[in-house]
Amino acid sequence: MSARSRIIVAALMSVTASAAAAEDFVKGVYLQSEELCAQAKKETIQAVIEGGNVLLTARGIEGIEYNCEFLQVTKANRAPAWLVNAICQEPGYVFPDVLSVTQMSPTQIDVVSVVGAGDEATPSNTATYQYCEGIAAP
Question: How many domains is the chain partitioned into structurally?
């Protein structure tokens, strides 16, 4: 097998592994509290986001004037967790982030970010999210 063929096979295996990891990944919409889920059901998910909150889906973390797009998802072998590479942006600022996403229970996901770790002055994507049954992503 030529070097070029090996590179193509390796690239295809990487894409396949990422797709398999994504199949088990976050399903549905998550907000940062059960109260916000209830508000989204009563009003709309858009109203909750416009109130300054963020939501978590398999695509990433999204809010008004802020988002983190999940680019690569790698499933852990021995834990209900994933390592996620993301590109985050807010007005005038784009930055990379690496996150651990851990399924704590069927309805709770913890996200831990390396950005701002140990620095309270730096915003971070670290948060706990609750599953919002019956809520669709905007």
Answer: 1
Is 55 within the bounds of a domain? yes
DSSP per-residue string spanning 76-116: -SSSSEEEEEEEEEETTEEEEEEEEEEEEETTEEEEEESTT
* pLDDT tens digits, one per residue of 106-126: 999 999 998 866 566 556 789
For tokens 């390796």, the residue is 10
Give 3-state DSSP helix, strand, coil % of the chain, rounded to 5. 25, 40, 35
- Whether residue 138 lies inside any domain: the answer is no
| Encoded amino acid at 69, one letter | E
pLDDT in tens, 38-85: 999 999 999 999 999 999 999 999 999 999 999 999 999 999 999 999
The answer to whether 96 and 109 have CB atoms below 8 angstroms apart is no
| Band (138; pLDDT cuts 50, 70, 90) | confident
Q: What is the domain extent for residue 40?
A: 3-131
Q: Phi, psi at residue 120, to the nearest 5°?
A: -65, -20
Distance (Å, whole) CA 127 – CA 32: 7
The model's pTM: 0.79
